[in-house]
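TODO from last week: model Hercynine oxygenase.
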Amino acid sequence: MTHETDRLRDLVATELGRARDRTTLLTEAVDDGDLVRQHSPLMSPLVWDLAHVGNQEELWLVRDVGGREPVRRDIDELYDAFKHSRRDRTQLPLLDPREARKYTATVRDKVLDVLDHAPMEGTPLVERAFAFGMIVQHEQQHDETMLATHQLRAGAPVLSAPPPPVPAGKVTGEVLVPAGEFTMGTSTEPWALDNERPAHRVFVPAFHIDRAPITNAEYAAFIDAGGYDDPRWWTTAGWDHRQAAGLVAPLHWTRDVSGWASTHFGRTNPINPDEPVVHVCWYEAAAYAAWAGKRLPTEAEWEKAARWDPATGRSLRYPWGDDPPGVEHANLGQRHLQPAPVGAYPAGVSPLGVHQLIGDAWEWTSSDFHGYPGFTPFPYREYSEVFFGPDYKVLRGGSFGTDRSAVRGTFRNWDYPIRRQIFSGFRCARDA
Ligand SMILES: [Fe+2]
């Protein structure tokens, strides 16, 4: 056994443990009634996410990598995300909370045994522990989804966290990114998913991009200026949706005599003017940008602003460099239950001087979700390829609810342009 194999096994065990601790926290914070209840037709009951996390782990690590006998082949169909829509999942004969916990624990015990014996090279699935990394990210992604379900849940607060750090200084304005090629995507990041691959050169014309995400105060100015009532700022589809859905402000915002307030995990407070706005859909983001005389950045613009180092011409793993995210770099991992005010992470700035690209709020881009040149589906088409096309917009950078294992400079998320139960915000760009 090599030193590298030992290192990978330790890393996987640590990361699997961190993911499970978070899943446990999110599913033990509420009672069984809240676990099986549907808090929104947009979301699964929490108990479905819990057993689905275990089922994916069983499929990929126990059966595929480990070559072991199935634990519960009979439940595969119930927890196949492509078989049942979220709104229908409460109607299924799901495992109850006690059974779901027992099942995920049984699977995890087997996986830790597989981990002790599995090779860490030889096939693409096990190379540098890829399949384990995929499952770690899958569980953390469901944890973020469960956190969004908590945000939609009615009732007394059950989650708490300390406030994010205060800003070290003001961050305003925009930076000019010069025209030129940069390397987008990755062919070397060991746990990067198929849609982040391969690395390829992209020419990006000169553009300006905001140094910080759009804040609550900036967004409130758009509302106060009548932005929701003026079809000039909205795309045709966006205006139709704004009217049909009755949009007047971000999700979870309410107005009283003293101004706008927002509700975070059961607690309602006046909005913090300096915090990045969150819970806006793509149509709202694009309308704001048009009102401001700007536009959303393309995905390539966002990634160049985040990764391109003009001193070396190289693309970094993260805006601050190649080191994994530390607490000083970005607001990640549910450490705080809200975005941090603009300027709170000076150590996370990109070489071009752009702040808070990673963490705080997912950032909508103008781009549809497509495969990069040379894209190869891996390990299965359902991971990304079936979502390619004009229906989905790409989001970048992760939110306060994203774990550090499930985000990087190349990481791509996607969703429908009407969705805003996710922790989504944006920043603006414009042509130079
Ligand atoms: Fe899933």
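Done. The chain has two domains: 2-152, 168-432.
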